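Entry 12.
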Amino acid sequence: MYLYVEQWNVTQKWMDLSKEERRNYMNKVGEAINDLSKAGVENLGWAMNDEHTPYRSDYRYMAIWKIPSLDDVERFEKGIEEAKWHKYFSQVNSRGKIMPLNEAIDFLVNLEEHSTSIID
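Predicted 3D structure (tokens):
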């Protein structure tokens, strides 16, 4: 099982669309999301990034997904590309296999300096 986090801002191309064009586009996105849910992809929620969040990212909107497998993640990403989502939204993503808390803690504790990027 994977977690997938999307964060985005709108682009000028989105703002240049009429509200009717935006609604038509989002209706198609909604249909695709319904199809994804039938395939076991679960949307955990959509949100606007609270401006009072400590260490806040510069992205205004977010969605979090729970996706059954890496193959499903790759199909999800392909669907986003096919929808030309990035034409209208400037986006960053994070994805990873879900792990239990103790495994995540052990991973962080046992890191070796050469095994990861270190940020000063």
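Annotation: The longest helix spans residues 19-38. The chain has a mean pLDDT of 92.
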